[in-house]
Amino acid sequence: MMSSPxxxxxxxxxxxxxxxxxxxxxxxxPAWAQTAxxxxxxxxxxxxxxxxxxxxxxxxxxxxxxxxxxxxxxxISSKHSDSxxxxxxxxxxxANRLTVGVIPVLGYNTVSTGPDSSHVGLGDWTLLxxxxxxxxxxxxxxxxxxxxxxxxxxxxxxxxLGDRPADGLGSGAYTTxxxxxxxxxxWLPNGxxxxxRLNLSQSFSSHATLEDVSxxxxxxxxxxxxxxxxxxxxxxSWEYSLTRSWALALDLTYSxxxxxxxxxxxxxxxxxxxxxxxxxxxxxxxEYSWNPNMGVLLxxxxxxxxxxxxxxxxxxxxxxxxx
Length: 323
Known about the structure:
This protein is mainly beta and 323 residues long. The protein is built from 2 helices and 18 strands. The strands form 2 sheets. The protein has a 12-stranded antiparallel beta barrel with strand order 1-2-3-6-7-8-9-12-13-16-17-18. The protein is elongated, with a radius of gyration of 31 Å.
């Protein structure tokens, strides 16, 4: 007599099936973990090469015995004029934490309301000294902080301009600027570095003695003085390291100029006031560095809005070199 086949209850078969599936899935769990996105690699500071943004000064100082040379070429274009110029930073590490330097300026103006500059001329040159107070260290909240003193000399032509007011490239006054610079670094979620700078400054100018046609709007025969108003300046910048050689930069600035007064005779009494003014500037740029000591910046400074200020666009190219 043939025996009947063994019967397994349905609930037991279902349990066996689930246990079989679980056994197949458990070995695969580690494979799933391996396919998860790895944590981004944190970029090292040595892997980010910078030229610096267009407008914000560095809070760091040069090592003793080293030079930085950075010429800027620009065209400040407004509604009725173009001011072509060069502004070159020549800095030297004089001692530990102390950098000194000079900023020579050259310029040439074209105007739609009269003759252009007769030649390329000198602007007002600036002497500077910067002392570093603190140094940023990765993992610390304390930024690099420095104090800077600038003295701008009246080397540019500013009066006795005759029939070429466009030859005026200076102010005729000595200007002292006291500035605080700060710089820090942040690592973004993708591991790339964002470098940030803050500049705060206040400038004070002496009187300028004027004769005839001048940059202050005086006419032939005028004799008198001008007292430029003080200037308050604040600037923020961000630089994002795309790769070791490429970076994006952005500056945002605010400036407030106090009233400038002109007094004298021509031959009747003359009293002129410019009124106070404010200006906001935006300066996006792109940086490319061939190595840690040499790079180029391309950007544009845009002034739009503000009280009693002229809108302008200024394309800029700069070459940064450290020796």
